[in-house]
Amino acid sequence: MSKQQTATTIDFVTGADRTGPVGTVRLSRGASGLEVSIDGAAPAAIGGGGDGTVESVVEGSNINVDATDPANPVVSVLPDINISTLLSASDTITLSGLNGDVDGEYQFDAELLINSASPTVSFKPQSQASNLLAVTGSFLQGSVNHTDWILGRVSSDPWTFASGDKLYITGSLRAATGRIRMLSMSGFFDLSTNNELVFSGIWTDTTTNLTSFQILGNQASAFAAGSWLRMVPKNIVG
After folding, report:
1. d(CA 179, CA 164)
2. CB-CB neighbours of 94 under 10 Å
3. In angstroms, rounded to a whole number, what is the distance separating the alpha carbons of residues 173 and 39?
4. Could you tell me the pLDDT band of residue 18, with boundaries at 50, 70 and 90?
5. What is the pTM (predicted TM-score) of this model?
6. pLDDT digit string (tens) for 132-154?
7. What's the number of CA atoms in the CB half-sphere (13 Å) around residue 213?
8. Ranges of each domain in the chain
9. How far apart are CA 136 and CA 152, in angstroms?
10. For the purposes of burial, counting CB atoms within 10 Å of the CB of 86, is it exposed (0-12), middle (13-18) or buried (19 or more)?
């Protein structure tokens, strides 16, 4: 009975053409998998083990890798998260580095910690106070149209807040140029008498690309440290 043997190296004698030099290519199995050596040079790995499994996928910036099945890793792109958090009290929270034409639409969230007595709260896309229309109010107090993005019944009679009040806001902002942009949000006021917020606003400037957004209080240090604004791209363009 003959014993079957498994070759660990295979040599190929090759020639570039009929008159060219003859060389030797050696394939061998090394510690790291399949290796190749040409004309006696040090072997170099050319395979990861030969079992078809992806050995590793390295996560990069905004990249998530689910390697639950190593042979079929799932790679997904994470959205940029634009967030501005106050480190000290201020009358303005500004979020820069936006690109409305690329991102298309944003998930909009904010937590405002009121730090001074009786400030009003308003919003400005691209630092603009014009070309704005809104319907804002509460379920209990009703709502009224006005020509700014201020929280309140009308710009001449805005809501004011007390130090220690908290405002929680969530919604969406359509941001790409070429169409009227719209901010729709709802929220909750943690006040001495809790209340809910509804807001629908349009920005009638259809040509200016959105690269920044502000929340403003009309008093110095209106918002306490820890107040924040976050806008996450939805990548809905068109």
Report:
1. 39
2. 15
3. 65
4. very low
5. 0.66
6. 998 877 655 556 677 789 886 55
7. 25
8. 9-77, 82-233
9. 6
10. buried
